[in-house]
Design a protein that fits this description.
Strand content: 15-25%
Radius of gyration: 15 Å
Largest sheet: 4 strands, parallel
Helix content: 25-40%
Strand order of the largest sheet: 4-5-6-7
Order of helices and strands: EHHEEHHEHEHEHE
Structural class: alpha/beta
Distance between the termini: 24 Å
């Protein structure tokens, strides 16, 4: 889970994002998706990203296989102070997530980078194209959550954020963009995204609001 903690995200929005993920991972829909999977467990880590040198692990790799482990992950997510700062460096963020997947000792059947943010703007470091290509070459799927909520910077005025994510960031079999455009829809969007990823449902490059359409 690769979450935006760049300069456009204030402290309240950091907690808002984290609460959305904490609520989602402990929700019965997500737990049922895990339980219904081939291995009946997932490995998940939460990383906040900011500038070129700021990609910080908030919660290290954790095996989630039921309510207790999900609640433990959620508690740690909410207890840890903000760690990442600075302007967007999306390429470096993707590269950091790629390295975490490549270097861990967990042998997963599928690897997914769950990128969330309120902009496709990047400043310095690796280009998005370079980092994305390297991750995709290693068989990693990149999905996107476009944040258009709370007091965030809002919808960019000069480009379509979901289209930019679809063209520049996401990739791999079944990759998709989901939009969170209201406070109440954020946790629901995160939950639906996790269910789709865990269940392996393909929703090819479909931008959806709140919940996926078929």
């Amino acid at each position: 889970l690769l979450a935006d903690a760049s300069g456009s995200i204030d402290e309240a929005e950091i907690r808002f994002q984290r609460q959305g993920y904490a609520t989602a991972i402990t929700h019965r829909d997500v737990l049922n998706a895990i339980r219904g999977g081939y291995r009946q467990r997932i490995a998940v880590t939460y990383v906040e990203w900011g500038d070129v040198d700021s990609q910080e692990v908030v919660v290290p790799w954790t095996i989630v296989d039921g309510p207790e482990s999900a609640a433990k992950f959620a508690r740690r997510l909410m207890e840890t102070p903000r760690l990442a700062f600075g302007p967007n460096s999306i390429g470096n963020a993707i590269a950091a997530a790629h390295a975490l997947i490549a270097d861990d000792e967990i042998q997963g059947s599928r690897q997914v980078i769950d990128f969330s943010g309120d902009s496709a703007y990047t400043q310095g470091g690796l280009s998005i194209a370079e980092a994305r290509a390297a991750a995709l070459a290693d068989g990693i799927v990149i999905n996107g959550l476009a944040i258009l909520c709370r007091g965030c910077s809002g919808r960019p005025v000069d480009y379509d954020l979901e289209a930019a994510y679809a063209q520049m960031i996401i990739g791999g079999p079944g990759s998709f963009v989901i939009t969170a455009d209201k406070d109440k829809r954020f946790a629901a969007a995160v939950r639906r995204k996790l269910v789709l990823e865990i269940a392996g449902i393909e929703l090819r490059q479909a931008a959806v609001t709140g919940t996926p359409s078929r």
